[in-house]
Write a structure and sequence with these properties.
With 251 residues, the protein is of the alpha/beta class. The protein has eight helices and ten strands.
Length: 251
């Protein structure tokens, strides 16, 4: 497997009330091309901090992060912003669509950040909105006029418009009910099956089952790893394997 991201002695420290909090502690890890990597752990374990560091959204206090052949810890703020636009897609629990722009224009705007050819971006936007089952009748709607599940799928389309090497998702189903959450997971799974690399933070075991690899973060360190293989709907052995792993981690 090709390595997309590699960390070396990754640390993140915060100062709070005069005390130093070591949120990430000397993490050595790799993210592989084509994987659907899940990051789990208790609240405050450092999993979201790890996600933001891996994606270049937050700078580590110490250590190195190699993304492809580039050490992103040595990049300036402007260089990182440009790098993220070209190489990363982001899906958050809160979708953060621009309320004053239509569904279609929200996706278009993200595409135009890296490709100034409006015709090409428009064709890609149409293609990707269809792939996440957003009906054409919704494209002219504003974000406040569509459901939460639809908005999150628009968010996925926006994240994928620039064909990123890696999509980072932070609790993408956390604000959704089970039905709309499943629709979002189905969309992410389909893109992964087509070759898209994904790293997703989640508290939810149902969401975690979609990954082929689960990393468990505990007290700022990678405490364990569970390899589940390719996702198959209804695989009871997969569910039991993940449950046993999480129990062994103290989840």
């Amino acid at each position: 497997m090709n390595t997309l991201i590699k960390t070396n002695k990754l640390c993140k420290t915060f100062s709070s009330g005069g005390n130093m909090q070591h949120v990430l502690k000397n993490i050595d890890m790799e993210i592989y091309e084509g994987d659907f990597t899940i990051i789990m752990g208790a609240s405050g374990a450092g999993k979201s901090t790890l996600l933001y560091a891996l994606s270049g959204m937050d700078k580590p206090s110490l250590g190195e992060i190699t993304f492809g052949d580039k050490d992103i810890t040595k990049m300036s703020t402007d260089e990182l912003a440009f790098f993220r636009r070209k190489n990363c897609g982001f899906v958050f629990q809160q979708v953060y669509l621009v309320d004053s722009m239509s569904v279609f224009d929200n996706v278009m705007a993200a595409g135009l950040l890296t490709n100034k050819n409006k015709k090409e971006v428009a064709e890609k936007a149409k293609e990707i909105l269809k792939s996440v089952d957003i009906e054409e009748s919704l494209w002219d709607k504003f974000p406040t006029q569509i459901s939460g599940g639809e908005a999150q799928r628009v968010g996925i389309a926006r994240a994928l418009i620039n064909s990123p090497g890696l999509v980072f998702a932070d609790e993408p189903t956390g604000a959704l009910n089970s039905k709309t959450g499943k629709d979002v997971l189905d969309a992410l799974t389909a893109f992964n099956e087509s070759g898209q690399s994904i790293v997703m933070v989640t508290h939810d075991i149902t969401s975690a089952r979609r990954g082929n690899r689960v990393l468990y973060v505990k007290d700022g360190e990678i405490a364990g790893e569970c390899n589940l293989g390719k996702y198959v709907h209804g695989d009871k052995e997969r569910h039991q394997k993940l449950s046993d792993f999480l129990i062994s981690m103290g989840w």
